[in-house]
Amino acid sequence: MSLNTSVPSKRTSEFLMSSVLSLADIRRSPASGAWLNTIIKGDCVAALEALPDQSVDVIFADPPYNLQLGGMLTRPDQSVVDAVDDEWDQFASFEAYDAFTRAWLLACRRVLKPNGTIWVIGSYHNIFRVGATLQDLDFWILNDIVWRKTNPMPNFKGRRFQNAHETMIWASRDPKAKGYTFNYDAMKAANDDVQMRSDWLFPICSGGERLKGADGKKAHPTQKPEALLARVLMASTKPGDIVLDPFFGSGTTGAVAKRLGRNFVGIEREQAYIDAALERIEAVEPLGKATLSVMTGKKAEPRVAFNTLIESGLIKPGTVLTDARRRHSAIVRADGTLACGGDAGSIHRLGAKVQGLDACNGWTFWHYDDGQTLKPIDALRAVIRCDLAKLD
Ligand SMILES: C[S@@+](CC[C@H](N)C(=O)[O-])C[C@H]1O[C@@H](n2cnc3c(N)ncnc32)[C@H](O)[C@@H]1O
After folding, report:
1. Residue 300 CB neighbour total at 10 angstroms
2. DSSP strands (E only) in the chain
3. How far apart are CA 222 and CA 123, in angstroms?
4. Per-residue DSSP letters for 156-211?
5. CB 3.0 to 4.6 Å from 264: which of 8, 102, 182, 254, for a disulfide?
6. CA-proximal residue: ligand 1, atom 15 (nearest)
7. Cα distance from N-terminal residue to C-terminal residue, the chain
8. C-alpha 247 – ligand 1 centre gap (Å)
């Protein structure tokens, strides 16, 4: 299969030379510097075994679906449907498919960082088998995302429901994994401040995005839409993370990773798909750094102690703080505590005490007078956080 741009430009050929690695290359030089943002040509289990332990942040895998097509599929007008009947999608039995699934998932688990996560996309043909294997290997399923297709293929024979979705399993490496990336606040903000749900609506890949060969036919039979990958990466990675795709195909994961300022490593067996992916990724312009910062929620903000406000001169010892309605007041002491009557303690403890409560958020309870109005001391904490962000 050749692409429209089958004669690579000088720039492209330089890129091609430096961007495809053989298994021997990886074995000689397994450090990430050698394989970052490259495609490794070969079988994914062997390639994964050549990569170092705990070296990637996220894996996106779109494995063979084992579609088990029973002969040619035709439309009512007898035209033939361009179905996935490639050799790489065929397995002798469910047992053979399960053994393959187990082998590549085990290899993936070793290269994932302890706080890493894996996404596997599939259809009813394979996703239940993949899900069971993930659980058998001690991955922990976080979500199953339903990708509902806006433009699915009809069921031509009318013998079943129209198959209008695929499923993506998202799992952490370990059952008790802590600290995996989920950009919850960014996802929610992007969804009009409503929690992002587990059913996603996207069209299948078509139009200008669909890679075509010189013969006008699809360059890859199962090219995934970039919008789907963009949501996956925006949800579960940070700029600079390493995303591995063991079934790289036409390189959708690499193209989106490059555009979003993430690093990628792809593994693919077929040279024609590698060529298509290289041309495609070469053409991608990464977005600017300023557009890639990920919005974080309060939990992710750096911890700032009340004492820091005193040390930085934003609040002076002796300042009188009050609540918003000036019913309670306390004096700031040089050691970072507040005092009121015979009591002293942290901003939180004293705030609770003067109100007769068990707990209180001192940052929002105590206010200072800026000469015009009363403002919560949280506003001064925000100033410190803003300065810290400039240091990043
Ligand atoms: C479902 S397609 C992935 C399509 C890809 N997500 C895209 O958007 O183009 C699966 C790919 O895995 C490749 N493949 C199948 N078995 C493989 C193996 N054992 N090692 C490496 N690649 C393999 C196939 O050649 C095929 O391109």
Report:
1. 11
2. 20-22, 38-41, 56-61, 112-122, 140-149, 165-172, 199-202, 242-245, 263-268, 320-322, 329-332, 338-340, 343-345, 367-369, 374-376
3. 12
4. TTSSS----EEEEEEEESSTT--S----HHHHHHHTTTSPPPSEEEEPPS-GGGS-
5. 254
6. 88
7. 46
8. 4
> Is the CB of residue 223 below 6 angstroms from any atom belonging to ligand 1?
yes
- pLDDT tens for 150-165 read 999 888 888 899 999 9
Q: Sheet with 140-149: list strands edge to edge.
A: 20-22, 38-41, 263-268, 242-245, 56-61, 112-122, 165-172, 140-149, 199-202
Give whole-number Cα distances, 384 to 134, 311, 338, in Å: 44, 11, 20
- Nearest atom in ligand 1 to the alpha carbon of residue 84 is 1
Residues 254 and 245: their CA atoms lie apart, in Å, by 8
Report the amino acid identity of residue 257.
A
Determine which helix (DSSP H) or strand (DSSP E) holds 310, and give its type and residue range.
Answer: helix 306-311
The percentage of residues in the chain with a pLDDT greater than 70, rounded to a whole number, is 92
Q: Atom 26, ligand 1: which residue's CA is nearest?
A: 249
Q: Which residue has the higher pLDDT, 71 or 363?
A: 363
Q: Residue 332's beta-bridge partner residues?
A: 338
SS3 for 377? coil
pLDDT, tens digit (0-9, with 9 covering 90-100), for 41-100 = 999 999 999 999 999 999 999 999 988 666 667 777 777 767 777 888 889 999 999 999
Q: Whose CA is closest to atom 4 on ligand 1?
A: 249
Q: Which residues contact 325 (CB under 8 A, 6 or more apart)?
A: none
Angstrom CA distances, 374 to 84, 324, 366, stand at 67, 7, 9
Single-letter amino acid code for the residue at 59 = I
Cα separation of 290 and 278, whole Å?
Answer: 26
Indicate the pTM of the whole model. Answer: 0.77
Q: Is 119's C-beta closer than 6 angstroms to any atom of ligand 1?
A: no
